[in-house]
Every structure is written in structure tokens, then in C-alpha cells.
Amino acid sequence: MNSRLLKFLLLFLDWISAGVAWGTFYYVRKVRLEMTDFSVNESFYYGLLLIPIIWLFLYVLQGTYHEVRRLHRIKIFNLTFVSTIIGVIILFFVFLLDDEIREYQQYYTSVFLLFGIHFTLTFIPRLFIVSFIVSRIHTRKAGFKTLIIGGSDKAVDIYDEIKGLPKGIGAQFVGYININGIDRQLDTRLDYLGHIDDVENVLRKNEIEEVIIALESVEHDKLKRIISRLEGGDVKIKILPDMYDILSGTVKMNNIFGALLIQVNAEVMPVWQRTIKRLFDIIASMFAIVLLLPVFIILGILVKFSSPGPILFFQERIGKNGASFKIVKFRTMVVNAELSGPQLSSSNDPRITRIGRFMRKSRLDEFPQFFNVLIGDMSLVGPRPERQFYIDKIVEIEPQFLELTKVRPGITSWGQVKYGYAENVDQMLDRMKYDLLYLKNRTLSLDIKIMLYTVLIIFKGAGK
Known about the structure:
- The chain has 464 residues and is of the alpha/beta class.
- It has three domains: 3-138, no CATH class; 144-264, Rossmann fold (3-Layer(aba) Sandwich), CATH 3.40.50; 271-460, no CATH class.
- 53% of the residues lie in helices and 11% in strands.
- It has helices at residues 3-33, 42-62, 73-96, 105-138, 153-163, 199-205, 220-230, 243-248, 271-291, 293-306, 354-362, 370-375, 388-397, 414-418, 425-441, 444-460; strands at 144-149, 171-178, 192-195, 210-216, 236-240, 262-264, 312-318, 324-330, 379-381, 410-412.
- The protein has a six-stranded mixed beta sheet with strand order 3-2-1-4-5-6, sandwiched between helices. A two-stranded antiparallel ribbon has the order 7-8.
- The radius of gyration is 27 Å and the shape is flat.
- The two termini are 53 Å apart.
């Protein structure tokens, strides 16, 4: 069951359905509502060309084609219903509102007619595809490559419970790895793939899609360290809930026939918000680069005359999923400021130039990073990217810091707004708390608030 093939098939059928639905609606509206002869003209062909594109854009924005293999009937019904309501409203105001009508009731009839035709013709093909996917998963003919972490009695119980379910839930076990190097009670059931210390290589080598951590959720320290290493990418993480998790409502169940597991969802921002966020990043960074060009020129001249050396400063930072990139800033320090090795700046750092001190307080030195945003290395809002040298130091104390490297870093962040530049590792840990809080609660509205606070800091020159 190839994911790309399913995605293409679903997209193709949606395109066909949208075109047929619009053509059917056009015919019924002309013949039944307007009582005119049906004629094929330019507007009809333009509609067949443009309308399906609008629908497909809406579906992409909604996240319909994200993880197609994990779709189920209720989800595809909800997606189709919501997108049809939104799409019909858009089409009504763009294409139907200026129609000549005999009575006002025709507007309502047109809206309900378009909704009924489009929803029916879109949902039926989708239902067949999703039913095919679900059927193959329930009969265990298809699923997701799954790894168990743990080799104790608890791991055996989870494995036996899932294998004993009357219907498959998508777990196709590849093997297991243990945590303490001793417990290997799954040897008679699964292949032993190694120790937790080698988990990243095991995931990559075996193309793992789901991980089940066979530990009680009360074992917080072990869980925290393991989850910090696993979160990010496309791997789904599931853990056992304790009674507090159940009573507090944090247990997320997707299948009423499935085992009692919590899905650890690192991506709290819905697909449509992530799509809008990236589109906004591109548009806003292009606009900022053009609008701020005179500011760039003035700042460049000031930097050039402040001290000998280049205008721009490039440094390797760690971005999304641990990928390195070159961050660009206006130079605020003297040349060769780190000859003796990596050093964080302080409030009275003699290495900072006079104009550099002003630019740091007003965040003007960060403006060239709009180019990083444009090419996709960064976002407008996200945890500030750090150097690998300091990431290694922080992770020794607090492994949760690795969670910040699972998303695209930002020009500004909640930690940057609330705390500012960090002068040592302890302050980086304090700032990390704000960024972790952002990570678990990020929304478009929160991004807007952070950007507004950043603008205030720029105008007040109140940055730390």
C-alpha cells in the first residue's frame, strides 16, 4: 500500500469529482432554476478549469492529503463536510452572488444544491478509498512498521494484547530494543534490534513508523529521555497511560477496539495552520526584504564604519530535525571574537561594537534572517537556533532541549521575547522553559502575539 500512490489517487479523484460536481451544478442551475437552455460557453470551460483548482487548494490547506494511510471513515467524512461548507460559501460569494435571479429563494436553493452535489460526488469516491485502506489494516494485510522499546513482562503483555485483538490496528512489528540491556523476554516473539543507545540508527535502518514504549508513564525520568530522542519527524510515539492520565483526559483513543495507549503528539499545530504559517513566512519575508532595503543599506554602512571587518556575520546553527544551516546576521562584534572558542555574549561584553550594542537591543541585527526564512531554514516565530557546541552542553543537563530542534527555528521566539539573549548555559535553560511552553501550545494566534511583542521591543529598544 504505497503512500504516494494513494495520495495521487485521492487527489486525482478529488479533481475529477470537483469538475463533475461543478458541471452537474451548472447544468441543473441553468435548466431547472433559471429555466434557460443549457449552452456550453467560455464561462463553463473556465469553471471546469478553475473550480477544481480552488477545491484542491482548500483540501491541501485542510491537510486532507497528509498521512493518507491513517485516514478513517469518520475523519474523511468530517474533512469532506467541513471543506464542502467552506468551499460552497467561497464559490457563492465569488461566482454566484451576482447572478440574475427571479426571487431571493434561488440563492438558498443554489447553495444547498451545490453543497449536496459536491459533497455526494466527493465523499463517495473518498469513502471507497478509505474503506479499502481500513480493510487492509483490519485484516493485517497493511500497516505501519512498529518498534517496541522495552523487553520486560510489560512489553510482552502489550505485544500479546495487540496481536490478540480481533482487528488489526496497524501495528506491524519489526522488532524491539531494550532499555537496561538485560530484559529480553520478547526474544521468542520478535527480533532483537539493539539497545536504546542505538535507537536513532534502528529507526532509520528499519524505516520505523510507530514506536510503542513499554514503560509505565509514572517512570517519568526514563520516559522523558526516550521521548526527547524520538520526537520529531513522522514517527508516532505511543506510551502506556497510568490512572492519572486516564482521569485527567490526556488519553487519546483513535480506535475503540485498540489497546489502551497514549499517542504522544509532538505536532499540536493543525496542518492547515502549519500551511498558512509557512505561506505567511514566505510572503512576509519577501515583503520585509523589499520594504527594509533602505534600512539594510543604512545598517550596513554603520556596521562597516563601526569596526574593521565584513558587514554580515555567518554562523552554523542547528535547525529543524538537527539539520545544520548558516544563519546570517549583521555583525555586532569585532572580527575574530571567538578565537579562543565558542563564547556567549554578556551585557558588558567588550567584543560588542557600539553600533552592535544598539542593534542587539533593538533586534536590528536579526533582520538579514528574513533571507533564512525565505529559503526555509527558519520561520518568523520559533525557538531560537543554537550551535551544536551549546546544544551538547544543555542536553547533558536537560535532554528535553532536543525537542526544540524538531521544529523550524525562528527569528523571534517566546523565550527571546520573555528572556532575551542568554549569557550562559543556565540562562539558556531558563529561556528553554518558555520555548518548550511555546512548542506545546503553538498556534497562529500565539505566533501573532509573539511578533507583536517583538515589534514593541524593536521600537522601544528594550531587548536584552
